Amino acid sequence: MSGVLQSVRPSSLRPSLRHLTTVVFEGQRRRENLYFVVLAVVLLGLFPLALDNFHLNLIGKYLTYAFVSLGLVLCWGYGGILSLGQGVFFGLGGYCMAMFLKLEASDPASTSIQSTPGIPDFMDWNQLTSLPAIWVPFKSLFCTLIAIPLVPGLLALALGAAMFRRRVGGVYFAIITQALASILSILIIGRQGYTGGVNGITDLRTLLGWDIRSDSAKTILYYVNALLLLGAVALSFSILRSKLGRLLLAVRDREERVLFTGYDVAAIKTFVFVLAAVYSAIGGAMFTLQVGFMSPSFVGIVPSIEMVISAAVGGRGSLFGAIYGTLIVNAAKTFFSEGFPELWLFVIGALFIAVVMIFPNGLAGMDYARAARTVLGWFSKLGKMRDGGSGRPVVAVVAPVVPSQPRIKVEGQ
Amino acid sequence: MTPPAAEAFASESLLVTKGLSVSFDGFKAVDNLSFSVDSGEIRALIGPNGAGKTTLLDLISGKTAPTTGSVMFKNREITHLREYEIVRSGVGRKFQTPSVYESLTVFENFEMAFPDNRSCWSAWRFRRSDEVVAKVEQIAELTYLKDRLRDRAEILSHGEKQWLEIGALLIQNPELLMLDEPVAGMSPHEREATGELLLEIAKNRAVLVVEHDMDFVKNVAHVVTVLHQGRVLAEGSMDEIQRNPKVIEVYLGH
Predict the structure, then answer these.
(1) What residues of chain B lie within 8 A of the CB of A1, using their CB?
(2) pLDDT the model gives residue A40
């Protein structure tokens, strides 16, 4: 039917266009608000009540990775930019925090046995006799708190501006970010005297005199972390529900159209990449506080890819999926690393294949009804075979369920 | 040095290209091409495959950078501006295949084209105003999509997607609208409607249309430019073009 003929349909009976949205249907919006409350209850109520200190701290550690996954949902799931170097930003945030804590732990009194008291122990071992200039700002908590989002944010800004202006995207961008992850971890390991090398920055004790190793401190840090995460989720929703969220989707699906509609696509991509970097950095800083050290093993290629897989398992199109995906993958990692460490790499590899082949939208985006129908379909085939191929009652009952429903529900119909 | 005559010529036309050339690995897709388009004019670009029609649109819209030559729009050099800057200066472009946001509604497709709130911050703070709704409804009326505003763009017919893209361009209110094969794949009825649409929208802007459908071109174009091997072969009214022996030889005779 042609559009000209359709234009005679009456439209006056329909409600106002003022509040019409598709990306977030009204029902979905309410459901998301409910999920947000559930998430807050689980993080702030259920976990602290149900778990002992050790396990709560473990969950707190996993939740710091959830910041990275949230960033990946925005950047990759919505903006279509796959970064395999989120560990870089996680690491930079973590190192900024660790440098401040290390300086506080290295006061002249407690380092009096060193040949140069008052500098971190690993510097002394590497024959450094004074604090390097790059460490000086981290004597101040204020400067540190600014540096945590600023340093990774500026790096992402520089990288994004350089790459996206030149239209470097897709797999090329992913490879460049992966190379960055590799470079930074090599740099950290190589410059031992400045960074603590392969051991990282360890033996962190107090924050402005407050012992972060105590059980009470760990519980408080868990709450701080959970509240920051909820804040990040709320900010992400506010972005995804706005025109900016629709723009991100448009850039992912029709980059050229967006460009020729007068939008600075490179700026939009850079923005979301920087935002993802800042999220990761906050996660990294909270990791350092809760776990008590930072090392290059959270910066390189492997952790960066694990972060992408966590986000993909949960569902790169879902903020909540990213959080529970991260919890599930990291809990599995802990389980395997304790029992069968050699198996973990196989598990993560299998997970990656499963996500690509079986559920590309992750656990959150999986069509469970369809999966159930598929399984029912198998049973019906089995029944058919047993029936001698005559296709009587067993099939008749199951068959109507098999045709898949329309993938998209159209609002107002 | 620009001769005075050329300058006077430039100040009259909305779009002027001078000595525009681009080569890809030695192949000259557009070769020393100079032409101009005036406001209020519907100009058709025709020519055999590979004549450089789409490449010319690419050069004007900034998608491809020319090897030599310049593009002037409203007496302003736009040759080396970025794509979005060229769009913001008033050049709209429709692609050969319909390019709309399938996952959004028709209304949202139009809304995305609204020429405000283009920075990240203002897009985040954007709230739909009555002005936006009114403008979208006006354009939807014009492009025969008034009753499809609530539908997702992916369920539109091919022709309706073409209109949606043209409508989205109109929301930007460009002074030059470039359309690459707007009626390809349309039914005769839809072609006719599209022709009427073009005549309506050309009243206060220039329309540059690449098209193979000669009947359509005959109905809508004021002036026809024939391209061949990256050069202007002939230019004039459709009647003149159809009688031109060179044009018959390379293009229309087939």
Answers:
(1) 157
(2) 96
Confidence of residue A103 (pLDDT cuts 50, 70, 90): very high
Dump pLDDT digits (tens) for B59-71.
Answer: 999 999 999 999 9
User: Are residues A378 and A268 part of one domain?
Assistant: no
How far apart are alpha carbons A71 and B253 in whole angstroms?
59
The Cα B92–Cα B194 span in angstroms is 17
- In tens, the pLDDT along A285-328 reads 999 999 999 999 999 999 999 999 999 998 888 899 999 999 99
Q: Which residues, other chains included, contact B134 with Cβ-Cβ below 8 Å and sequence gap of 6+?
A: none
* C-alpha span between B38 and B45 (Å, rounded): 14
User: Which of B107, B118, B171 to probe by mutation at the A interface, max A CB count within 10 Å?
Assistant: B118
CB atoms closer than 10 angstroms to residue A358: 9
Q: How far is B81 from chain A (nearest CA, A)?
A: 12
Residue A320: which domain range? 22-364
For residues A22 and A362, give the distance between their C-alpha atoms in angstroms, rounded to a whole number: 21
- Chain B hits for A261, CB-CB cut-off 8 Å, are 87, 112-113, 168, 172
Q: Using the beta-carbon criterion (under 8 Å), do A22 and B157 form an inter-chain contact? A: no
A240 and A325 together in one domain? yes
A32 and A137 in a common domain: yes
Q: Looking at the partner chain, which of A7, A18, A271 has a beta carbon nearest the beta carbon of B147?
A: A7
Domains in chain A: how many in total?
Answer: 2
A327, A59 in Cβ contact below 8 A?
Answer: yes
Q: Has residue A16 been placed in a domain?
A: no
Give CA B39 to chain center in angstroms. 13
Asked whether residue A17 is domain-assigned, the answer is no
pLDDT at residue A145 in the model? 96
Q: Do B107 and A242 touch (CB under 8 A)?
A: no
| Residue numbers in A near B151 (CB within 8 A) | 410
Q: Which residues of chain B have a CB within 8 Å of the CB of A235?
A: none
Determine, for residues B193 and A23 on separate chains, whether the beta-carbon distance falls below 8 Å.
no
Question: pLDDT for B149-173, tens place per residue?
Answer: 988 898 999 999 999 999 999 999 9
